[in-house]
Structures are given as C-alpha cells and as structure tokens.
Amino acid sequence: xxxxxxxxxxxxxxxxxxxxxxxxxxxxxxxxxxxxxxxxxxxxxxxxxxxxxxxxxxxxxxxxxxxxxxxxxxxxxxxxxxxxxxxxxxxxxxxxxxxxxxxxxxxxxxxxxxxxxxxxxxxxxxx
Length: 127
Hints:
Strand content: 15-25%
Number of domains: 1
Shape: elongated
C-alpha cells in the first residue's frame, strides 16, 4: 500500500487554490457591499424633528458561504424602512377619511437602496 508524492502535492495545490479563491470571493463581495452601503447612507432621508434613525439603521451582514456560493447583504432593520424605500398610501388614499383639498394620497418611495446599487454598479462596472 503506497501513495505517490506527486498526487499529495497536487491535492495540496488544489486546497491552496481553493482557499485563495474563497478569500478573493469574500473580499470582492465585501467590497461591493461596502460600496452599496457607502452610497445608501447619504441617500437616506433624515427627519426634521427627531431624525437620523433610518440613516443609522443601515448595516452590512457578513459574507458567508452558502450552497450556491457566497452571500452577504446590506440591510436596514428600522421597522418603517420599506415604506420609505418603496412608498406608501396615506390615510386619505383609502377613503376612510374625508380628504382635505390638495391632500396627498400616495407618498412616493425614495429608493435609497436601488439608487445606491445603481451607483455602485456604475463605479465598479459590474457587481
């Protein structure tokens, strides 16, 4: 029962290349997430009275290995962030109350994350 030294050396090279690939993939994804985060924070609106909670709510989830490859995320855990991102109806848009003249029925979304991704794509070429 023997083994060839060449085979062991080849397997060691494969493992080294695999670990280098993993490091490079994690770094690339992390850099792209950081770029999106850097654009999303200044695009986030701040309230006039007690503002800044939505802007401070941005976070980068660490890059992890999944079945499909590697994955990370830029998230905002503030409970109303989806309403600011995508927009929402107001009470006057439901017909439950008598609308005042000139009342706003729909608040348009600000699309902070969408714009941040577009800007990062322009900067990076492709994510």
